[in-house]
């Protein structure tokens, strides 16, 4: 079987599992070596706004490309924003093969205003949710998504969907690389 090396710009097991899942789906005939690696985001630990969140994911992938060799590099960066319709959390995902890069975004999870206000005050979403729901390290488990959807969706499922969609340019390079 041919093999693929995939590097994930995080050691968070949720992010590594999401990447492994989508690459397994897209490359079922390959043996995968999917590893999480430290890669700095260059943005605050709790990015606020779409730009900082996207830039954080891009920076993680750029770091991996600069320092490591792989077939694919990917990163997921969770952020939050105050939209005109209310606060929400979301993630940007970036996938690169070193030559071409694709950027995707997850769906929004509406946040209570009180939670978003704590993010504005400098707290991280995972810590706020741990305090609210009496959990420990929820960001490496189901995340705020799991807690607020009664575990019908999870942080991993949100990342998986965004990564699956971000793979489109790699499936049809003749359409995207013109």
From TrEMBL:
<keyword id="KW-0378">Hydrolase</keyword>
<dbReference type="GO" id="GO:0103023">
    <property type="term" value="F:ITPase activity"/>
</dbReference>
<comment type="function">
    <text>Phosphatase that hydrolyzes non-canonical purine nucleotides such as XTP and ITP to their respective diphosphate derivatives. Probably excludes non-canonical purines from DNA/RNA precursor pool, thus preventing their incorporation into DNA/RNA and avoiding chromosomal lesions.</text>
</comment>
<dbReference type="GO" id="GO:0009117">
    <property type="term" value="P:nucleotide metabolic process"/>
</dbReference>
<keyword id="KW-0479">Metal-binding</keyword>
<dbReference type="InterPro" id="IPR050299">
    <property type="entry name" value="YjjX_NTPase"/>
</dbReference>
<comment type="subunit">
    <text>Homodimer.</text>
</comment>
<feature type="domain" description="Non-canonical purine NTP phosphatase/PRRC1">
    <location>
        <begin position="9"/>
        <end position="170"/>
    </location>
</feature>
<comment type="similarity">
    <text>Belongs to the YjjX NTPase family.</text>
</comment>
<feature type="binding site">
    <location>
        <position position="69"/>
    </location>
    <ligand>
        <name>Mg(2+)</name>
    </ligand>
</feature>
<dbReference type="InterPro" id="IPR002786">
    <property type="entry name" value="Non_canon_purine_NTPase"/>
</dbReference>
<keyword id="KW-0547">Nucleotide-binding</keyword>
<dbReference type="GO" id="GO:0000166">
    <property type="term" value="F:nucleotide binding"/>
</dbReference>
<dbReference type="GO" id="GO:0006772">
    <property type="term" value="P:thiamine metabolic process"/>
</dbReference>
<protein>
    <recommendedName>
        <fullName>Inosine/xanthosine triphosphatase</fullName>
        <ecNumber>3.6.1.73</ecNumber>
    </recommendedName>
</protein>
<keyword id="KW-0546">Nucleotide metabolism</keyword>
<keyword id="KW-0464">Manganese</keyword>
<dbReference type="InterPro" id="IPR029001">
    <property type="entry name" value="ITPase-like_fam"/>
</dbReference>
<dbReference type="InterPro" id="IPR026533">
    <property type="entry name" value="NTPase/PRRC1"/>
</dbReference>
<dbReference type="Pfam" id="PF01931">
    <property type="entry name" value="NTPase_I-T"/>
</dbReference>
<dbReference type="GO" id="GO:0046872">
    <property type="term" value="F:metal ion binding"/>
</dbReference>
<keyword id="KW-0460">Magnesium</keyword>
């Amino acid at each position: 079987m041919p093999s693929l090396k995939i590097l994930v710009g995080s050691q968070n097991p949720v992010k590594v599992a999401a990447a492994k899942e989508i690459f397994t789906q897209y490359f079922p005939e390959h043996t995968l070596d999917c590893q999480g690696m430290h890669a700095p985001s260059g943005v605050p630990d709790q990015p606020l706004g779409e730009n900082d969140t996207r830039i954080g994911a891009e920076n993680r992938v750029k770091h991996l490309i600069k320092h490591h060799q792989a077939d694919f590099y990917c990163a997921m960066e969770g952020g939050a924003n105050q939209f005109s319709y209310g606060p929400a959390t979301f993630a940007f995902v970036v996938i690169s093969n070193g030559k071409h890069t694709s950027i995707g975004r997850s769906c929004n999870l509406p946040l209570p205003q009180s939670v978003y206000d704590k993010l504005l005050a400098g707290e991280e979403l995972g810590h706020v949710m741990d305090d609210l729901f009496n959990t420990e390290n929820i960001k490496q488990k189901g995340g705020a998504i799991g807690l607020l959807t009664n575990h019908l969706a999870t942080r991993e499922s949100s990342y998986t969907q965004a990564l699956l969609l971000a793979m489109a340019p790699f499936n049809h390079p003749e359409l995207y690389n013109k």
